[in-house]
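Lab meeting tomorrow. Please check the following:
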Amino acid sequence: MEDVEECLTGQLDHRVRAFVQPLLRAGIGPGSQRVRISEVQSGCRERDVEASGDRFVCLVPYCGRTLSWQVIFDIHRLHIGPDVIVSSEDGRDDFAPDILDLPSLCNWNAKDPAALRNVLVELVQLYRDHCFKKLTAWTPAIAAQAEVLSNMKLVPPFDMLPFPPATTTTSTDERALIAAFSIGLPIDLSLLPAYLIPLNLGPSRANLILSFYEPKENPAVGARLDFSPQIQHAFHGSAPLALPAWGSEGLTCLHEYVPNIRQILLDKVEQICESFVRRRDFVLAFCSVFGRGLLEFDSESFRKISFLVESPVTPGTSHKLYFIVYVELSNQFPTLCPKFTLQSVYHVRPSGSRVSCTFDSNYPYSPRWHGDEMAARARVFLLERTETFAKELVSGTGQSHWEVVC
């Protein structure tokens, strides 16, 4: 996708490209959604240079859909700004904004690289206002909820898209869509550990998509969350996010449901932070308990640690056996318990892999314990299991065939 976009912008005249690039980088609307371009063309009769494009289709994300608006520059008169043609394919044939309502176009500043983006931001806002008027006419109850939501300080401006009343009867399995909302919810990730928030993944926003289906009196509502790449990276590996059903827990209005989703996201960030702190405490406690045998540990995300342990002298041998213990913690720790793997230093299977055994349950553990208590109890269990595992290796029970490597 990035290669295609780079190819298209490369077809633009360099003077037009200067307006387009800030638009593509910053995005528009809830969650600063990414804008794309297509169908780059040139209005010049004589193309002295290969990159002479001065008109293109701007694809603007809106309510889970795409608005296709044609932008036409005249590279010989860039000081007067572009024409913007709103496509009738968007189903809003009567959307005809007055140029006087677009101050960035009336007062076009050809020296400002953000000038085109400013025009489109204003145009989207006019389109949003137009949709609200339609929503008020077609479904006044939902429009009233949207108005209350728009007055809430914690909710930024959002997109809405009404649909005209259905002209045909639909089955219960295919209810007619009557309205859709796209609500950007900014999320503060500053408290998360640094490895979860790379600098090059853009803004940290979630986009809540709500779809209202007939009947108008008691609509069925579907909800989904779209995450920006930054949020996807931060939430990766953590427990799935379950959205409450519309109508559950008394959530029957936009101004009740949306703040609830926002709180769920805030709780999610807090949960990730808590998991990181608990993993760090656990790993550092293990480093203290097994300090002399410590081999390595993950000092960034605190998800892995390994150390060397020895078993007592086993009957039938004149020496102790040594094992490497690997500890793995998931991003859902302490809800999910650690996984321990005991690996023999000496014994190798015919396939070349080391003989080992793994424990991911059935040992003393409680997520309510502090890291020191977890480490102390795990130490007792691991030493007991190491002795048992050593006896199994010496006696040849409990394992498949192996070889001893000295």
Observations:
- Confidence is low (pLDDT under 50) at residues 167-173, 398-406.
- Residues 254-289 form the longest helix (36 residues).
- The chain has eight helices and 14 strands.
